[in-house]
User: Fold this.
Amino acid sequence: QVQLVESGGDSVQAGGSLRLSCAASGSTFSRYDMNWYRQTPGSEREWIAAITGTTGRVNYIDFVKGRFTISRDNVKNVLYLDMNQLRPEDTAVYYCNARRYKESYWGQGTQVNVAS
Assistant:
């Protein structure tokens, strides 16, 4: 079992930056591949970034490449998402996800609002 708690969501102006954090507990963090997703009202949750457990290989959906950076600290058991050049369309609830084989765990989400 993994417990995940996101934080860092806020209201910012377009062009601004935020750092989201996802604190993990309950199991060996480095064994899990970690993901960030986001969801807007009426839409499905969409994947935006991933980082593997030990090698730290990263992957992004195209529309965040060059603006968002996913990283992790396997000592502190924290996942990060650094978001720069924020746009109004980035407004969403952001969720972290831990995945290993058939296991999948979610946090409760953190709200990001970007004003134009």
About this structure: The radius of gyration is 13 Å. Residues 23 and 56 are 17 Å apart (CA to CA).
